[in-house]
Structures
1.
Amino acid sequence: MLKVRIGVDLGGTKIELLALDDAGKEIFRKRVPTPRGEYAATVKTVAGLVLECEGALEQPATVGIGMPGALSRVTGLVKNANSTCLIGRDLKGDLEKALAREIRIENDANCFALSEAVDGAGRDARVVFGVILGTGVGGGIVVDRQVLTGPNAIAGEWGHNPLPLPRTEDLPLPDCYCGRKGCIETYLSGPALERDGGNVERYAERLARALAGVINILDPDAIVLGGGISNIARLYADVPLHWRPYVFSDQVATRLLPPVHGDSSGVRGAAWLWGR
């Protein structure tokens, strides 16, 4: 019997389930609205989707969950989630009780990075930095097809570092919801680009400065962009031209790539939390 992997993308507005076979081929998919602000109903919905999928496929599966947040290394409870009903909850434990098995949970940006590293744009790369450029700005790191989370469960969370080397046009430093000023997210999110009148040239230069800092620390083989802004085609040529002066090297071999799986990367990455 072929191994089946179920991935669940637990978003603020929708919950999507995807099942993959051993070869990474999609064999089942379903999307339902998220019960807004209702934790117990959310757990019940996720568990119900998993059982429905297994019933349709007539076999059990491994289960991975991608969510907008992380599990605290101290308490095991959800932290840093923009779906606030999850914060402080034992999501992993409650889902394991509902499904009577072990599950794996990761941040949704980590799942995106894993998907693109396993069988997406970064499949031939050893170190992949996955970037989410959407309503917010997130990131994930994958090394040898394994998600790097770190002792604080925040590896790859570059969006709440300051934008490097602010220029006159970057001032005054904008306020961020996290309580700081001048965070990368305040310049590079979708709403930030809209506030700047859609100035893609200025956006590309800012993105280059921000990614140069990542390259100087992580030195990834590939950086894969995700989220709605990843659809702006000119970024893939413009940003590498802009980042050269800021990277501490005589050459920059890091590749900036569009995603292969697009909006499906997060849910595919959740499924791949159980390896290949």
2.
Amino acid sequence: MKIGIDLGGTKTEGILIDNDGKELTRKRIKTKKNYEGTINGIKSIVNEFESHFGVVDSIGVGMPGAVSADSALVKNANSIWLNGQPLKKKLEEVLSRRVNLENDANCFALSEAVDGAGQGQAVVFGVIIGTGVGGGIVVNQKILQGRNNICGEWGHIALPNRTQDEIKYVNKCYCTRAGCMETYISGPGFSSCYNLRHNANLDSHEIIEKYPKEEDSVRALNLYVDHLARGLSVVVNILDPDIIVLGGGMSNIGYIYESINENLKKYVFTDKLHTKVVKNIHGDSGGVRGAAWLS
């Protein structure tokens, strides 16, 4: 049996699966927004599962951010109370065993590669398009981490070939750089671009609800898919994955899948494009299931 923990900013979710991936139980608790509270929350889930099902074979935790290759401390986490902390070491002390700790986008990619939309594919690029934009790379069902432990962080590459119009109607990224993909294709980025252009104050759901009745919404969604294709073309030109699996809240927009693959063909440097962009299978469970598959 395997335990997976998805450590989010607002909720911490745990799942127990057997070695074939069958879900045995799950639990969700509110994340305490402090370091010790977060540790204790994870411990409580593990203790509850093992009290009912016995000692598990492995424990995996998916988290926002990454672990520094130099210091072994958490970095780049939007749950800021984790940054600078030895999370892996602390969990292993508290639980008295090895803990596999990974970026949550990597866990999503692993889940979809093992028994999701990318099953059977050698190279899977898992994409998160939600409140933020992230990604993970899985090769032969193993996460590719990279020398700096930032593989798949395509949300902070610049949108290719930005027009003056696209430069004008976008906010600067929180990372202080200009033109990041996250500022165009995250949920907040999508709505921000729309609102700046139309002097409005709508969230992404309200904009999408207007499709296809209002021309502004149609244009916004067409532009969104084009932005997504342009950003993914950079990844395809470098990584050349077998499949790209979309996750996160924005991945639920059905319109994306009607045209994303045709749009992507326009920007990738090849005569015939075999890589397909598809929706995930496991939905919100992707991260927690991927954490359980860590080994």
3.
Amino acid sequence: MGARGLVKASHPEPAAAVTVVGCLLTIAAGRRPVDTVTITAAVLASQLAIGWANDCLDAERDARSGRRDKPIPLGEVSRRTVGIAAVVAAVANVPLSLLSGPVPGVFGIVGMVFGLLYDWPFKFTVASVAPYLVAFGSLAAFTAGTHHWWLIVAAGLLGGGAHFLNVLPDLDGDARTGVRGLPQVLGATGSWLAGGGLLLAATATLVFGPAGRPSIAGLGILAVAVVALPAGWLLSRRFGARAAFRSVMLVALADVILLLFSGTAG
């Protein structure tokens, strides 16, 4: 029971997604196999630390709001256990990050630190997007290197866009539980405009940032993004926020694919 609850408290889906993308970025960038292993382990440790810290810090608020998807309020794992796990994972990230060298190691540690800063206190402030911008940019620098400024910028923009768009289906619940980050302050329309704008900026950076002529595939993805984002929002007026959420997730997935292919660019 405790082990299962600990896994649930780690936010396993986003943790796995970010770890897989980080691993693929190291491969696309041509990192040594040993670096791929240590960097992937460091990214996983940072994601576990961030997820566990989030549930530990939010335990009382989750209990008051009756969250049925949170293992601590349900008694599936203790808050103390989750807190200890978060500390262990955060400590493990430091030597794992530094194994790839001092410069990339700093980016690995900085990415984790800003993820933890989002858990507290930034989540509850109008500066809530800042940790996403820094953490995702640092993730790209840690995994793919610092040779391409546009790769780091695009990753940061993608992370910032994800922050706004990820909360679209949950704005009402957030308001009831006291979360007052920038998306909650802006509301559904403002969050969609901010998140969609950041995703478009990320796509454009990935298409036009590399040297040489933009690829046909990249221009095609940019064209799809220009159409899909407003179309999704129009559909949401009839079918609810999930329609807009699906459209932006499609664009975000295309951006991730572009990001991976961009990691091989010279």
